[in-house]
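Reopening this ticket.

The earlier resolution said the output was attached, but the attachment link was broken on my side. Pasting everything inline this time so it's all in one place.
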Amino acid sequence: MKKQIFLTPLQGKKLIAAALAENAALLSAAREHTLVIVAGTTNGFIAKAVLKKLGFGDFDAGKFFRGVFSGKKMAGANPPKDVVIRKGELITDMSIDEIAPALGVGDLILKGGNALYLPAEQVGVVIGNPALGTMGHILSAVYGRRASLLMPIGLEKRVEFPIDELEAFCNAEDMAGPRLMFAPGVPYTELDALESVGVSALILAAGGVEGYEGGVLLGLEGDKKALDKADRLLESIK
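Inline output:
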């Protein structure tokens, strides 16, 4: 059986969050190891869904980000604290830079991205901080102590070239503006969210107007049971 759905970027963020709040590996990290949800617009929805799932109540995601593109510029916010859950306990007032030295095997970091190259499942992160910002601390945990990195990212951020090529362009000596960095994490998109309930998903078309800019038309395929699960997941975010 087949069907089509259309998702706006906002709905895509909510869909990713709803799926990850049921993800066994993520919940295991939160309950048995350490889960760090680094501030970001998509991660704000994830934090809200995961904290509700674990019984911690509501979460205000309104200012849960460090840098966003607004108009022609990259706008920043006062750095918020990140969401840290260690062995089932919510640790408040802690950021990735503070918890990173304690992360290792079994721990999971969620960090959003800015560029997605789907053919190779690569993610790039825009860098505004010359000291690499949160990515510097994340790299020390991932490369230095083998923590895992999952990168929730919407399909509206897909790019046409491998991240290393874009990285070289952005980081050239004669280039002005923010840098771009290849991130050694696994991307998690709306496609992964839908496939988590047993359907296969692919991009059919994209774009729209009047609030549908950046949206994607997706094709789903699966048996009736899987498509019914997908419908329930979609209803939960619409």
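Reporter confirms the inline version is readable. The first helix runs from residue 9 to 20. The chain is about 35% helix and 30% strand.
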